[in-house]
Amino acid sequence: MLTATNIQKYYGQLWVLKGVDLQIKQGEIASIVGPSGSGKSTLLHILGTLDKPDKGDVVVGNQRLNFLSEKQMAAFRNRHVGFVFQFHHLLPEFTALENVCIPGWMAGRRKKEVEENAVELLRMLGLGDRIDNKPNALSGGEQQRVAVARALINKPAIIFADEPTGNLDSANARELHQLFFTLRQQFNQTFLIVTHNEELAQMSDRILHMKDGKIV
Ligand SMILES: Nc1ncnc2c1ncn2[C@@H]1O[C@H](COP(=O)(O)OP(=O)(O)OP(=O)(O)O)[C@@H](O)[C@H]1O
Asked: What does the alpha-carbon distance between residue 74 and residue 59 come to, in Å, rounded to a whole number?
């Protein structure tokens, strides 16, 4: 599903990623753990095409990402990749339903089909009776689930999550973890999750330990 070879990244003089090699299989749920500053988020952003490496190769499916222009990269991201972040950046002036629909509309899909998909996803996530609420009328856990639905609207093959449960209480965190596994079972989606949550890491198929810009 995803192969990264010799990924290196510098921020000015700072050598943040020092040659990361990584393979993720389709349908796998893998966690990346490691000390603060070891390069986890940087790696996730590069694998998710939000940032470019200074050296190395990322291949997703049969697409080698290095050779894509910015525009092609954005199109690729919109079609194939989903992101879930700790701070989910829902748009406050839009309803839960609209927040979920926006990436689908941006991908040029039919408005009605996107809405039907979004309602289905929100129902699946236990938010069927919250679709018209704006973010400030949703709990933290509900907002996070809306963000997950938004990440899934274009049926991405791979979902990158950066501390997805960082701001949730343990009950909501557990629910979101379960959800990843349910989705994997239903759609065979692939998840790569950066987390400090020991419980989530232990549940995943594989734990990758990062230290000093390398997987050790
Ligand atoms: N845009 C940037 N410009 C300069 N330095 C950066 C930038 N982004 C990250 N860094 C530095 O790169 C290093 C790795 O950061 P990164 O966010 O990848 O670590 P992390 O392992 O995800 O940490 P945490 O667990 O605290 O989120 C850190 O030293 C950080 O200060």
From this structure: 15
How confident is the model over 133-176, as pLDDT tens digits? 999 999 888 898 899 899 989 989 999 999 888 777 888 788 88
Instruction: Give the count of domains, the chain.
Output: 1
CATH of the domain at 189: 3.40.50.300
Q: How many helices (H) and strands (E) does the chain have?
A: 7, 10
Determine, yes or no, domain membership for 117: yes
* Residue 107 belongs to some domain of the structure: yes
Q: Average pLDDT for residues 46-69, to the nearest whole number?
A: 89
- Asked if residue 4 belongs to a domain, the reply is no
Separation of alpha carbons 82 and 56, rounded Å: 22
The verdict on the CB of residue 40 being under 6 Å from ligand 1 is: yes
Domain that holds residue 175: 26-54+68-215
Residue 16 counted as domain residue: no
Our answer on whether the CB atom of 11 is closer than 6 Å to any ligand 1 atom is yes
Closest C-alpha to ligand 1, atom 18:
39
- Which strands, in side-by-side order, build the sheet including 55-60? 14-24, 2-11, 55-60, 63-64
The residue whose CA is least distant from atom 29 of ligand 1 is: 37
Q: Would you say the CB of residue 38 lies under 6 angstroms from ligand 1?
A: yes
Taking the model in full, what pTM does it have? 0.89
Complex ipTM more than 0.90, yes or no: yes
